[in-house]
Every structure is written in structure tokens, then in C-alpha cells.
Fold each of these.
Amino acid sequence: MQIIESPKMYDVIIVGSGAGGGMATKVLADAGLKVALVEAGSFFDPKDEKTRTQLKFPWESPRRGASTKRAFGDFDMSWGDWKVDGEPYTNKGDTDFYWWRARMLGGRTNHWGRISLRFGPTDFKHKDVDGLGDNWPIGYEDVKPYYDKLDKLIGVFGSKEGLPNDPDGFFLPPPKPRLHELYYIKGARKAGVKVIPSRLSILTKRINKERGVCFYCSQCNRSCSMYADFSAGSCLVFPAMKGGQVDLYTDSMVRTVVTNDEGKATGVSYIDKKDRREYQLRGKVVVLGASACSTARILMNSKSAQHPNGLGNSSDVVGRYLHDSTGASRSAFVPALMNRKKNYNEDGVGGMHIYSPWWLDNKKLDFPRGYHLEIWGGMGMPSYGFGYNISEMNKYIGGDIGGYGTKLREDVKRFYGATMGISGRGEAIADKDNRCEIDPNVVDQFGIPVLRFDYKWSDYERNQAKHMHQTFEEIFDGMGAEVMGTKPGADRDYGLAKPGQIIHEVGTTRMGDNPKTSVTNSMQQLHDAKNVFIVDAGPFVSQADKNCTWTIMALSMRTSEHIVEELKKMNL
Amino acid sequence: MVGTLAGASLGTAVGCETDSKAGVEEQAPVNTDETEYYGRTPEELAWDEKIKAEEYLNEHELATIAVLCDIILPATDTAGSAGEAGVPEFVEFIVKDLPSNQLPLRGGLMWLDTEANQRFNTVFKDGSNEQQMAIIEDIAYPDPDNKKPTMGPGIKFFNLIRNLTVTGYYTTKMGFDDLGYTGNYANIWDGVPPEVLAEHDVDYEETWLAKCVDQSKREEIAEWDEQGNLLT
């Protein structure tokens, strides 16, 4: 079967329509460039009634929202999760890596937590502090102008706090705390833990006429049909397409970047998932935003005489330094929140209204990097799993466990909204040996070799998780809550989540000034092919104790503006 | 069963002073589709159809489940029973959708019939109310001291059917009303109602509130000065 070549010549071909690819599409199309946007998933618009899950009730699903078909439940807006049909990945040895893929326009931004934190000055130069990992070749001052523009373009609520490593931005006003969050504030302060309003990319106030304002359904993970939260499709790709500069290719799975005799990229080769045939697009520049691991996979699969170890991989660094955020969680029972006399709607925005940024000095601790705390709880909407083992809560108040009838109804109501939880999300140390590589024996349903993960946590991360649990208990004590479950010990890595489970994988194509130890330069341009750029989280040198999306977008904006300039100068 | 947005919200709203809906309700999407269509992809729709067409539990088992569901959550003065909420139908579906429940449920139902036969020479569902409740009383509570050594499987089974009944019931409109869940509609959240705060040992601080959203200005387009101070 012949490869079908398009006669069209694009200025830029962008692979992936999530945070990084979506932002590149917006900047490059707005600059008047002819853009092909190639997405492995299907078309998705949160406004589409056929696929909308926002404001649906649990009884509209025969399984009441259970996670049979979607790992985070029926109403979560992600097509694809830890598993994608026909597209496996493998683990090496005793590695247990989890990889979430959303096969849809906008990718994982349709369901993400909207936690939008800037990296701070220390985050870019953390090796200077503790000697571990590497510094970024750029600093906060290089990225700040793009964070500023991003805040205004997309919208993020938060508060000006003047913290040294959690920089303020151009914030929309945050919502008031919920009841359990007020208890958290009390407990956290007793434990000496700082608390501030959360920073989420949800519009609590209008930023333009195209997007709506939050109506507090708490369902950002279902993707907002009013476009009041940030999803890459609704906030970047659709506005970019209005100018007519973008050809959108969905259900198009990029296999390789095609290069010429000089080693420069000439386009991409992709499989159309609908007819299962291979096509080629031609472009002057290729921008990869397929996600840290998918981009690494494309590069490693793009072998040629000029790039025998895969495109951009003369350093053998592609796929290495993979790291996810660390995570641990604990829940607690709050007696003061039992027997709510009056129920009221406390859905709020999609996620927490408050959070705790990292507040300690690692020099005094047995782990090198920090973590922040996320808070959950409240009188949320019931779905599958609601009320399971509810009667066992009686053990905390000396009540009778078990029963049925009136007693059971009373138990359900007594304990409704009286549990809450805290999750720690921290920074791991990037390790050269933690990697994804091409599995030499396995292909997906399109015949494309798949990724194999090889990843181990170190004591840096395990000790951090141990500390998280100490913190959870101190805060819960401070708010008069009873910690639930048992404290995980060394046998369970102190409750540390498996790598990949926090869905912040970064670092696989890290940036640097030295082509022998990095994949891209500080403009996220391949050292080995100057017309190929990477705009996902692959170029991250380190993760910070922040979530990665806001920095992916700021850096994608920076790289995209650079591409516009370089094309003008005929440098590519 | 698909309520319109307005119907759902008016039916459950309890008139919170701080919970204004003015101006936002008409912006929100309205559930108008009457086909139990809840945003599925074509593959997911096909899965649902396949599962619905399958049969697992037989007529006798389903009839027994219906009896159990109404023992676990009978009707009250203000709320309907589990049967009226359609819980048996939910259980019928969910054991096919989540097959890990199948063996514990089928085996547990058979255990229950065996127990009823041994005690009363009848299957459970055909026993008198007194006979049924005699068995239920023996399996509805945990037995940490092993006082009823032969009841272990029954206790485990009853816990499963109780969990499925509670989750099935409180994920219906009837369950929402009984629980008092009043959300899932377009509104303008403006904090915990003052009378609720008054009942608790926490309060809003002036310095914190000063940072928070002024909902009267939510429709004014945001503008900032160069230092990032919000001007509008």
C-alpha cells in the first residue's frame, strides 16, 4: 500500500492539540502562518450536545457513573485513560508505570484539574540549592513575560501573596472557601502550614465576549460547555481556526517525522485511523506537542541514515529523565461536619478553593524538594460508590455498625459531607535511568512500535511521601478530624503513588545548552534538526512542586513566537 | 429519566440566600434529550447496548434481590423504597457491567435460600416477613467476636447487597431528595450561608474575603494595572 502524499506545503505542522500544541496553533495561526494541526484523537467540542456530560445526573448513566468504561468515571471527559484500545505500552522488569492518554481534540486539558501554578525562580535553578538534577538553561525572568500574557489570554484565578517561589500573576478573583476548607485553614495554621486561595484556570469573571463565566457546577473535569474553564480546544484551537489558517486533521496518528538528506524535517507521516492508510504532510517546520512520552516515541521511531538513533537523539537522551510529580493522599472524618442541619449547594468551582504551597526549607529535611497540598471534600454529588460501607463510619463515634432501614438512612445522612482529604503533590528528582524507550518486540494496531517504561522511585521521593503523611496527620489533628485508614509504611513506599499516576510526566526531551546532554536548546528546538521544535512537557529539565500545564503553555507561546521570528528571518 | 435543568434545580433548591441563580440559569446547557443519552462515544453506546442485552441474574434471583432491596431501604413517610427507586434494575445491570460482583452475589443468594430452607423449609423470598427478618437480623451486623460462626458468608453477602442498594438508591432523583443534595445546576456560589457558619467553629476573615470574587462584577471584563491589580 502506497503512502499518500499531500501536495500542500504548510508553514508549520503541529502534532498534538493539547496544552502545548493548542497554544502553538493559536500563536502560529494568528501570525498568519499556514498550519496543519494533526491530532491522534477524534474531534471534540464541549458545546456538542452529543458528547456533553456536564450537568448530567448520575441516573442518566445505567452504571451511575461507575468507572467501567472511563477510569475516572462515566462523566469524566477523557476519551482514553490508562489504557487505549489497540495502543498498548509495556513495562520493563518490575516497573509499574501508568500512562494516561486522552485521544481527543484538546487532549487531557478537557478533564484536568485546572491547577495553574507558575514555576518560581528557584524551580529553574534548583541544582544551585541542593546540587541535584540540573539547572534549566533559562530562568524565571525568561518565562515571566509569557506567564503574564498567558494569564490574560486564558484567565486564572488566584491572589497576590508575594511568595518568593510561587510568583503572583494577573489573577481573576478566587471563590470563597467552602465549609470543610475553612476547617482545613484552621488545622493547617495550627500545624504551621501556609494556606492561600487556589490558583485555577477557571473564569470567575469575564475575560472576553467569546467565553462564558463559571456557573459553579464543580464539573471542570467534564469540560465546560460555556468555555469557562481552560481546555485547549475551546480556548486555543477553535479561536485559532476562525482565521482560516488551520487545517485540522483528527484521528490522525503520527508515526514519524520525515527528514531529508540534510537531516532536516520535511513533514510528518501519519496513519488515518479511519481508513488505516498512511499519509504524508509536508511543512517547513514541525512542532511536536504530542505529550512528553508520545513525542519521545515519535522521535525514537523517526530513524533515518542521518538520524540512526532516532530524530534528535544523537545524545541518546530522548526518553530519559522522565519524571512524574510525586503524590500521596489521606482522608479523614470531621466530626464537626456531621449532621448538617441545613443542606445547601456547595458545588463551587471544579476543584479546591484553597491550597497550601510548599512552606518549608528542605535543608532541614531528609528529602530535597517540596510539595504542595490539595484539598477535597464537601457535599458533592453522589455517584457510583456513594454510601459504600457508610455504616462503618460509626466506629469513629462509638455507634453501631451495620443494620438497614431507618438506621441506614440516618447513617447516610449523618456522615454525608463529613469526610475530606488532602493530597500532596511534589517534585521528584529527574534521573537519567528513568526512561521510556521503544519496546523492540511490540507494535500497536497501526504497526507502530510502542513505548516501554523503565522507572524507579528513589528515597528522595519516598521520604517526601513519608513527610506528606506526617503533615496530613498534623493538619487533621489541628482541625479535630480523625484520620482514616492506616498510615502506609516502608512496605508501601509510604503511600507514594506509582510513577505516572499523577499524570504530570515531563523531561523526556530535556532542554540544555550542551547537545551531548540534552535534546533541545533553550528555545525547545532540536539540537539535531533546527526546524523541529517541542512544545509539550518533554523539554522540562525539572518538574518543580507545581503542576506542569501553565509552564507548558507559557513555554509553547515563547517557542511559537520564536518560530514566527525565525521564519521571517528565513532561518529555518 | 432525564429532568430538565430547571425542573431539577427548582425541585431541590432550598432557598439559600447566598445562592443566587439570577442570570446564569439561562446560560447553562439544558438536558433535553429523552433517550438516556449521556454523552457517550459510539463505542461506549455499543457497550451499553451489549450489556443491556445480556442476561446474568435469573428471575428467581432478581425477585429475591427485590425483596432484599426493600428490606434494606423501605419507604418512609417522605421517601420511596429502593424498589420504587428502581434499585433492583440497577443491580441487574451493574453485575453485568462489573462482573466481579457476579459470583459473590449469586453465591450469596444461594446461601440465603439454603439458610431459609434449613430453618423454615422455604426459599428466602417466599418466607413470611418474620422468617425473613429472623435471618436478616443475623446477617445485618458484623460479628467480630464470632458469636455466630455459621453466619459469616451471609454477613459478607448482606454487606454487598446493602452497598449496592445504598449506592443505587442515592444516585436517583428520589435518593437526592432524601439526602438533600441540592447542587448540579447553574448558580453563583458566594460562600457558605451565614446561618451555617454560625453553627460552626469557623468563620470568614475580612482579609481573606477581600481577596475573593465580587459576584456583582462577574460580567465586567477583567482589566489589570501593570502590577497585576485587578481594576474592574
Note: Residues 52-179 of chain B form one domain.
Amino acid sequence: MLSRSSLSRNAPRALSAGRRAMASAANPSFQYDVTEAAGVKVANREVAGPTGTLALVAKAGSRYQPFPGFADALEKFAFKTTLKRSALRITREVELLGGEISSTHSRENVVLRAKFLANDLPYFTELLAEVASQPKFADHELSEVVSYLLKYNQQAAFANPENVALDAAHGVAFHRGLGSPVTPSPSSPYEKYLSADALAEFAKDAYAKSNVALVATGPNSADVNKWVGQFFKDLPTGTTAGQYKVQPSEASKYFGGEQRIASKTGNAVVIAFPGSSAFGTAGYKAEASVLAALLGGESTIKWTPGFSLLSQATKGFNQLNVSTKNLAYSDAGLFTVTLSGQAEQVGAASKNVVDALKKAAAGEVSSEDIKKAAALAKFRALESVQTLETGLEATGSGLIHGAKPYQIGEIAQAIEKVTEQQVKEVAKSFLTGKATLVSVGDVFQLPYAEDLGLTV
Amino acid sequence: MSAPSITNYIVKRPWLKRWMTPIAQWFDDLIPEESETVQKAIKRLSSKEAYDRVFRIRRAVQCSISHTLLPPHEQTKPEEDVEYLSPIIREIEKEAKERADLDNLVVRK
């Protein structure tokens, strides 16, 4: 065991501002090389290793879809039958090569992802190009495969009260655009808009050269450019005129408000405020991510509630989950506190959230806690970029939306510069501005915004 | 229409086909349904095609029961007699063959 005195001697050292510089800031292999090949933006990070990853990020998420369910269906149609190969053949070939293919979509992007052994780069580049430029969109595939996948996806998404609350919070906060649900609700009549022909039109625009970015990690940049230049020549140039084109991005506007949804699946409350947009955009506020870490709610260390204000405040509640996040998008952000669990405890803890915000706004937080929060915020930002799942999309999204790709060193610097005063200001602006409150579950017990002292 | 079909037998013999053609032109309606492939193909028809198909079959059954002939303007004209089901059946057969081939794949390195 460490003695008490040695701990107290080391703790200030760990928190001191003049720490060693981040290794990654100086290490060029963590930066992305950005080029253009065959008219497509390509970002590559060379990492020596036996495997590689290649992702195609298309600006066609639920925010840009012309009708509900289109982004979802486009995602599910990825790696299905193309004009050259059947879906079965694609699956079997990938199995033989030992790769992994997947597709996901978020509010802003549809991401097709391939992981593979380093030698197979040409095959997977060709595959992604084929999926994007020569999809078949067979009618029967929609009715026999994709429509079921959509349904299961909806059921999974809507069985989770937290998810329902988050989706509703976006709707209340941004109305259309960013507010449109990631997955259409099972009770919404989305099927009437979906048809294979409409999706084919949408895909032509979604996978247009100006609308996609390729992000690779692992392979050699010269190789990536060579193969992308060769295979992505045939990508559509995107001049779909009709109603199925990717919707133009109108600047997101924050509205705020309150919504209550009765549900038997569980209880969740989302308290949201206008947060910080993604790094590299005009609305980027590093202090929002520091405040998110300060409010926290989830411990990063085992067997302790952690330092964050909310986990300290809700220590006594044993059937409650709290987490605070700043969900960043290309031109707006949503700062969310999500509470889920037993209805009584969720209701009681939502009051604690507002109290914690008031404390932060009044500056009643020790500077040590803010330093800890800044360190955690920095770690989270850097980790999310370094992790393949989140980093690829963030980088691609940065490229398509005209901003720069994530450059790790700069994020670290931005967060280091955050002052206590800035954190205080953000908390204050949350309390004075319009909030968003969504309660899902046993609405008989869950609080109204009025009860919490929030203006909506 | 569960009787064993003689369509293939007729189609294979040009002289017989020539003789039969005026009687039974709509070959795609006469493809026996009792197989998984054809059932799947029928499901893949567009709703208009599926409706028309059932309509023609029911009308034919009615005519057969009542021993009448269709009035000439309702009879199918040669230019309307298109292959609407066979292409789908061929596609499904191709898929099945590809699956069987891939299932029996041997990897040599």
C-alpha cells in the first residue's frame, strides 16, 4: 500500500499544468494525410501493422435524408447485390479473405467500413467502390431482406428508453434536420416513402464524389491513393434533380422545449442544452466538453463513484444510470444529461442535475475538480479519435463538411486552454437559456421542467 | 391447377408448340406453381402483375366452368403475351446455383 504522505505528495504533481507534452502531438504517424484521388477526398493515417481499415463516409445520415427511413435503408442496402456481384458472393469472398465489413449510420453520416489484412487493400477498395457506384437496389431485396432488418433495428432502438428519450430530445431541440430521428419510430408510416427506385436515386446523390470521403488507417498512403484513384473513378458525380436527392444542409437552429412520452419499457430523462459543435467548426467550444466531464455521472474507475458532480450527488441511488455527453455535429451540438433507471430515483436525480449546474454556474466547484474534468475531457476527445469506430467517422465527417479532419494535437491544445471562468459561463448560459427536457416511461412520476426550475 | 403440366413437353417439340400456340398462348401463366422457385418468383412480381395474373387465371377457370369463350376483345393479343414470370424464375435459379456452387467451394492455396 502507498502511504498517505506519498499520495499527497504525488497528487499535485499529477495535476500540475506543466506536464510533459503529449507524445502524440509530436508524433506524425497520428496525423492524417489528406489528399484527393479521382475527385474523392482521402484521409489516411499510416500505422505499421498487419491489418488495415478503410471507411467510406457519406454525408447522407438521417439529417440529410429526403424522407424518413432513407438513411437507415441505405445503410442496410450496403454490401447487398451490386450490378457485378450478388450479396452472397460478396459475403463469401470477404469470408475467404478474412475481412470484416459493416455499415452504420448516424444523424449526419452513412459509414461503410471494411477491416482487412494489409495485403487485401485493393480488393476492399474495389468492393467499397462497387457498393457505392454500382448498387442494384433490387425490389425483392428490399421486401425480402432490408425491410425486415429495418423493422428489427427499430424494435431494438425503441425498446431502449434512453434511446427514445435522446431521439426525442433531438427532435425537440432542432425540429427538422438534426432533429429527425436516426431510426424512424415503429409507429410512423415510413414504408410509404420507401421503394427500391427511390433509394437508387437517393444513393446516386449520397455516394456522389463531392458527398463522400474515404478514411483509411494502416496502409501506406501511396497505395491508398493509387487504388482509390483507380476504382473510385466511376463514382457518380451527383446531379440527381428530383425529390430524392440528399437534402441541403440548413443551418441548425436550437429551439428547446419539453416532451413526455409514456412507455412501459423503462424510465429515462434527458435534460439537454445547446452544446458545442464538432472540433474544427465555428461553434466549437472546448469548455462544453469540460463541463460534460465535470457533471459526468459515470465513473471511469472501478469501485468509486468518481469525482464528477453528478456521481457524487447520486451516490445513494443504486438503480440509476447517469451520463453527461456533448453530442457534437457539424454545425451544432447538444449537451445532454441522460438519466435512466427506477422512476422515483430518476425523478429525484433530475433535480440534482439542475443543482449541480447551478453549483458550476456559481463557481462553487473546486479548481481541482475542473482540472480533473479537463484531463478527462481531453482523454475522451483523443480516445474517441484514436478508436477506430468513432475516429474514422469523425475524420470523414470533418472532411465532407468542409472543415479539417481531426488533428489530435490541436484538440488537446484547445481543451488545455479552457479556463474555470469559461466553464462557469457555459453553465450559466445553460441555466438562463431555453432547456430541452424529455421524459420517457412512467410519466406519472417523472418531473416537469417547471418542477426542476428549468425554462423551456 | 394442380394437374401435372405438359408445358415443357410441348415447348420442347416445335411442331406441337406451333399446333398448341393458338390455344394456350400465355405460357407464363401455365408454369406450374408447385415449386419453391416459382412460389418465390410469384412473390417477387409487382403488385399489378400479380393482380393481373390472378385475374386471368380466375377468368379462365370461370370460362372453363361455364363452357364459354371470352369475347374477342378480351382475349389476349400476341403483343400482350410477354414473359413476365420466366425472367424472375431464371434469376432465382441462378441465385440457387450460385449458392450451391459457393457452398461446394474448395479453396486451394
Note: Chain B touches chain A at residues 43-44, 46, 95, 98-99, 102, 105, 107 (CB under 8 Å).
